[in-house]
Amino acid sequence: MAVYSPINKDELTSYIEQYDIGTLLNFEDILEGVENTNYKIITTKNCYILTIFEKRVKTKDLPFFINLKKHLSLKKFKCPQPISNKKGKYINILKNKSCVIISYLQGSKILKVKKQHCFQIGNILALFHKETQDFINTRNNTMSYSKWENIFTKCNEFTNNQYIDIMPAIEKELIYLKNAWPKDLKKGIIHADVFQDNVFFLNDKFSGLIDFYFSCNDFLSYDIALTINAWCFDNEFKFNSDRFIAFIKGYEGYRRLTKDEKNYLSILCRGAAIRILLTRIHDKIFHHEGAFVQPKNPNEYLTILKFHQEKNIVDYIK
């Protein structure tokens, strides 16, 4: 989350009159993350989150995200519930941009990750995959391999790219992944953004998953790979096998990995690392000057990528 579109109290007061959510008492910006503008709003009825969509989120994709959260809410999955205005519309306009109001979840992100948290994350990711099997809407992954190539080319051609020294290594990895990427693994709805910022805990118990704006149809095991990279490395980005083993045990409590999914997991983790590495490089180079949050360090995911290039992660669960 981030703030790219500042609003004042008068603007927000006027806007929420479209909703039956009470009168505005207070609001505060949420600075974590890098994708959209988010505010916590407190009214006479409850707390809510206002999201104003920026950058990568396309207006045509918003019904998919809203319907996905509505679907999960009906399944009692712990996630934000979209709020409609008085006319029944979920997607509206503020600051000339699309926006939504969703319910507020109790809890906060974990600052010190332990294996017990990773076990729960595995459980929740598998449950997400299970509960979306009957979700009828579809969306292509707009951050798949072709997008990685486009981002690489854009960054590589930029004159003042401070990461130019590592671009040849990234190009070599992209070539490898193009040839090695699996073609026939189980697909379904993936969250694609189960980072620590997007998972809430309350008293060390999972309390909610947020930020569904990368969700799409893709390999379920690619979602697993993205989540492994986000949760199974420590603060110095060294691999933590205890966290990894706990995560896999948690996931397989709901859904067993197939033999092919295990065989390709290392490659999927490499692709997941490249995806975040490239988008972080892009966000560093083309940083929005008006944003109130600094882009995250790409070198963290360069370290993760190098680990996967040297080790086959499946060896830790054999």
Structural summary, described in words:
- The longest helix has 27 residues, at 259-285.
- This protein is an alpha+beta fold.
- The protein contains 9 helices and 10 strands.
- The mean pLDDT is 94.
- The chain starts with 8 loop residues before the first helix and ends in an 8-residue tail after the last helix.
- It has 2 domains: 9-103, Phosphorylase Kinase, domain 1 (2-Layer Sandwich), CATH 3.30.200; 115-316, Aminoglycoside phosphotransferase (APH), C-terminal lobe (Aminoglycoside 3'-phosphotransferase, Chain: A, domain 2).
- Helix 3 (115-131) runs antiparallel to helix 6 (220-231) and helix 4 (145-156) packs parallel to helix 8 (259-285).
- It has helices at 9-16, 62-74, 115-131, 145-156, 167-180, 220-231, 241-252, 259-285, 299-310, and strands spanning 24-30, 37-43, 47-52, 82-83, 92-94, 97-103, 187-190, 199-202, 205-209, 216-219.
- Strands 1, 2, 3, 4, 5 and 6 form a 6-stranded antiparallel beta sheet that branches.
